[in-house]
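ARCHIVE CARD
CATEGORY: sequence design from structure
SOURCE FIELD: tokenized fold
FIELD CONTENT:
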């Protein structure tokens, strides 16, 4: 796998890395060690600023990398809500893209159905309330 390059989308890079690591049947305990030599620029800076023990855990490394590039559940929520279907994209591709954004936004593996529902309801409530510039 090529090194991470300046201007490259860190999310897509990490998704590609994860798919390749699974394809190659690499144990997740090795992923951090295999990813670090591929990091450059801001991504490498984020890794070097991490606590050494935490940097050995792929999920922690990924979290720090996404944070360095200002990517959070809120980023995914905004992308989910503003998604349009490009002309060249099939319905299946659009569906899968939305599904992926949804999973990264609400993180269903970390939250109950009730918590997810509550977050969506609160978001909608904020959308329908009248705007008050004095608040």
């Amino acid at each position: 796998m090529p090194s991470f390059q300046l201007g490259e989308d860190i999310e897509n890079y990490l998704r590609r890395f994860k798919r390749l690591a699974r394809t190659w049947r690499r144990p997740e305990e090795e992923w951090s060690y295999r990813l670090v030599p591929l990091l450059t620029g801001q991504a490498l800076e984020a890794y070097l600023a991490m606590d050494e023990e935490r940097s050995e855990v792929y999920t922690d490394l990924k979290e720090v990398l996404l944070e360095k590039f200002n990517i959070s559940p809120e980023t995914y929520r905004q992308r989910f809500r503003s998604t349009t279907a490009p002309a060249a994209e099939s319905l299946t591709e659009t569906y899968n893209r939305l599904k992926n954004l949804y999973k990264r936004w609400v993180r269903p593996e970390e939250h109950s159905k009730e918590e997810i529902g509550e977050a969506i309801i609160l978001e909608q409530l904020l959308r329908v309330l009248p705007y008050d510039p004095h608040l």
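CARD ANNOTATION: The mean pLDDT is 93. Residues 46 and 65 are 6 Å apart (CA to CA).
SHELF: design records, drawer C
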